[in-house]
Design goal:
This protein is α+β, with helices and mostly antiparallel strands. The protein is built from eight helices and eleven strands. A seven-stranded mixed β-sheet has the order 3-4-5-6-7-8-9. Strands 1-2 form a two-stranded antiparallel sheet. Strands 10-11 form a two-stranded parallel ribbon. Helix 1 runs antiparallel to helix 2, helix 2 crosses helix 4 and helix 2 packs across helix 6. The radius of gyration is 19 Å and the shape is globular. The model has no long low-confidence stretch (mean pLDDT 89).
Length: 270
């Protein structure tokens, strides 16, 4: 894989997403998912706030002049001190099991004010110029809540052009050859054969590696399409949410292509 001018940004993004993904897994396993509703009635979980705080803290430590477009704001936590303290505890306990990697991210968030400030730092309006990070701390909230598919998403945009991106998918199979079936989004949480980090930089291809609790897994695998002898053996993927995907139209397309297998409906990544 060729070298990129954004290798350092990608390295920090990978570590930041990996640490945030560890927090989301801990939140799920501790049954601490708890939700609030935004003004548009969409659910926000404890994991959303915690993951955003961790990632923005790491970005501000390494790239203090960059702007960040996040998903959440800290106002609901300022109005709910008990919830804010609960999230702070989770955030401070979410550490990479590798001292050098944790140091690269700036270490632990010191206190409640620092956590709230980090969450609110994701308030950039974006725009066509400058270095801007785009963050979705949990893409696929409903999938997260039911223990299925979701992703921690981060990308760097420079002068309107995407330069690097990372997806942390805690519940996807690690093996690139594992079959993707219609039940891939259920009962995944807690399975140690799952958890993947995807990454890409412009012009350098895309790779995957296992999601780990410490340093980044070495020797990432280049992503490529698997060869198929017959189109009918392909897997048709679509969103779980009907509002995000025209299931009827896609069923017709699959039939015309001769794909007889049940479609794989996934939150976030489909």
């Amino acid at each position: 894989m060729s070298s990129s001018a954004y290798n350092n940004e990608l390295h920090i993004a990978l570590l930041a997403v990996q640490r945030a993904a560890i927090l989301t897994q801990r939140v799920f396993h501790d049954n601490a998912k708890g939700t609030l509703s935004k003004d548009d009635a969409s659910p926000v979980t404890i994991g959303d706030f915690g993951a955003q705080a961790l990632i923005i803290s790491a970005l501000r430590h390494n790239f203090p002049h960059d702007e960040i477009v996040g998903e959440e704001e800290a106002k609901p936590l300022r109005e709910n001190p008990a919830l804010a303290q609960k999230i702070l505890t989770l955030v401070q306990e979410a550490k990479l099991a590798d001292a050098e990697s944790e140091k690269a991210l700036g270490g632990t968030i010191e206190d409640l004010n620092a956590m709230l400030a980090a969450i609110d730092a994701g308030n950039s309006p974006g725009g066509p110029t400058g270095r801007i990070w785009a963050l979705d701390p949990i893409d696929g909230t409903k999938g997260f809540l039911r223990g299925g598919q979701y992703a921690v998403c981060l990308a760097l945009i420079v002068d309107g052009d995407v330069k690097a991106g990372v997806l942390g998918c805690p519940n996807l199979p690690i093996s690139n050859t594992a079959p993707i079936s219609a039940d891939v989004g259920t009962g995944a949480a807690g399975d140690h054969s799952r958890g993947v980090l995807f990454s890409a930089t412009k012009g350098c291809g895309a790779t995957s590696r296992p999601l780990r609790p410490g340093a980044l897994a070495p020797d990432p695998t280049r992503i490529h399409m698997q060869e198929l002898a017959q189109l009918r053996d392909a897997t048709f993927c679509e969103s779980v949410e009907a509002a995000h995907s025209s299931h009827d139209d896609q069923s017709v397309i699959a039939a015309r292509l001769g794909i007889g297998k049940e479609s794989v409906r996934m939150d976030s990544q489909a």
